[in-house]
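Why do we care about 3D structure at all? Because function follows from shape, and shape follows, mostly, from sequence. That is the central idea of this module. The next example makes it concrete: a single protein chain, its amino acid sequence, and then its structure expressed as tokens.
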Amino acid sequence: MDVSAQVVRVDALSCLVWPDDGPTALLLHGNGGHAHWWDVLVPGLVPGWRLLAPDLRGHGQSAWADPPRYAITDFASDVDAVLDALAPGPVALVGHSMGARVAAWYAAHRPERVRGLALLDTRTSPVDPATAARWRGRIAGRREGRGYASYAEAVAAFRFVPDEPGVGADVVAHLAHHAVRERGPGDWTFRFDRAVLALDGDAANDLGALLPRIRCPTLVLAGADSWVMDEAERAAIVAAIPGATARVFPGRHHFFVARPAPVAAALRAFLDDLPARGSER
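And the structure:
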């Protein structure tokens, strides 16, 4: 997969930067992910857009918070740091899943820094205790993941949670490659800090009350068969954000890595249509 990003450090954060003379978009990955999840969309956005994709704290090449600090306000401080260093003017903000929750919170609290918002398959409701117990309960209190004897064994263990049929083998291999690290000789593991997966989520509770405060153009993108952003959740988000529109694509929660070309085209059309708001650089 051809990606021509530069890697820039912003304090404890690692950030991919695709340089361009155009306006800036900041891309926020989901829980357990990393900045390279956005690589599949880059060919549809560059040239024309300067892209910033940080590894959020506890993910990818960025440092783990010690002690663990993974509330939505902590992730928002990461966004502040990246924008202060790399794009002090208003930017377009794009987020998937957990990253979309951060993006929505940020757009509501920092409207002067956001000229457009794209939310990919997320929920604004609080973490459901039963769902958290099912998906996160077995690792509660743990930070390190299990070990694998080799790189090959580790990348072979990579899975989409929830599952996403139809993702190309090259995309799976690319995401898995950037998801693992060698913790020690003969000990490979996944990079992200399991403390991110707290049973109470990001401590933001229900973001629904914040959504009417979002005043920038907003596009909601969803997978038709996603249970994370189901039809009711999608409709509630679109109704709550003034002027928001939605696009639905075949697939589930990770639909954009399964069908990147049409998703990138829809996202590019939305971004290109944003009204100018001064300099984003």
